[in-house]
Automatic annotation (TrEMBL):
Keyword Flavoprotein: yes
Cofactor(s) required for function per UniProt: FMN
Protein name (database record): Flavin reductase like domain-containing protein
InterPro entries assigned to the protein according to its UniProt record, in alphabetical order: Flavin_Rdtase-like_dom (IPR002563), Split_barrel_FMN-bd (IPR012349)
Family label: Belongs to the flavoredoxin family.
Record carries keyword Flavoprotein: yes
Organism: Bordetella genomosp. 7
Keyword annotations of the record: Flavoprotein, FMN
PANTHER family noted in UniProt: FLAVIN REDUCTASE LIKE DOMAIN-CONTAINING PROTEIN, FLAVOPROTEIN OXYGENASE
Segments forming domain Flavin reductase like: 19-172
Length: 213
């Protein structure tokens, strides 16, 4: 089936994108407003764009009456924290997705513990197995109600039990037990069926390829 996005409204293009680009990592963002009040919200339009330098991008929408708290807080140059979501934290992450009134502390509502960050003002979520301290590099306005946040990762916190080798920065990724966003309004993927597939060299591929390939 062919879908021409030029012929579809935004609601349907959103449904097609989120139903087919899966699983998506979840950025559980902690930011602060001008009064220093904390805000926590999950975003699945998120990904790593560069490892050197370390850069991530985050897609943030707006309400019809104005920007969401996170969007308003993430001005150019603002610091924030991306916390990754483990299966154990999924229910509490879902609480922070509630559309609370501005000024409500979502982390307190979800029973989460805050821990100080070292390079940015907003705290991190202590229970999260991975927390990235970030600083906004650029805000790209792609539409009136859609913005892409480009951010530098300044530092990362990883729970000790998931660190295999500090010097070589080896991480036991399965132990993080991270979840990904799937389709619809409430579907998520959990790491319970992993597959290892080493990358091939051209010589290996040619050795295994049928004659005439």
């Amino acid at each position: 089936m062919y879908f021409d996005f030029a012929a579809l409204d935004g609601r349907n293009t959103y449904k097609l994108m989120t139903a087919t680009i899966v699983p998506r990592p979840i950025a559980w963002v902690v930011s602060q407003d001008e009064q220093g009040r904390n805000n926590a919200a999950p975003f699945s339009f998120f990904g790593a764009m560069s490892g050197e330098p370390p850069v991530v991008c985050l897609g943030v929408g707006s309400r019809t009456e104005g920007p969401k708290d996170t969007g308003a807080n993430l001005r150019t140059g603002a610091g924030f924290v991306i916390n990754m979501v483990s299966a154990e934290l999924l229910q509490r992450m879902n609480v922070t997705a509630i559309d609370f009134a501005p000024g409500v502390d979502e982390m307190q509502a979800a029973g989460l513990t805050v821990a100080p960050s070292r390079k940015v003002a907003p705290p991190r979520i202590a229970e999260s197995p991975v927390a990235m301290e970030c600083q906004v590099r650029q805000v790209i306005d792609v539409a009136e109600h859609r913005h892409i946040i480009v951010a530098d990762v300044l530092a990362i916190h990883v729970h000790d039990e998931a660190v295999l080798d500090v010097e070589r920065c080896y991480i036991d990724t399965p132990r993080l037990n991270l979840v990904g966003r799937m389709h619809g309004r409430g579907w998520y993927a959990i790491q319970d069926n992993l597959l290892e597939l080493p990358r091939l060299t051209e010589a290996q591929w040619r050795a295994d390829a049928p004659q005439g390939s």
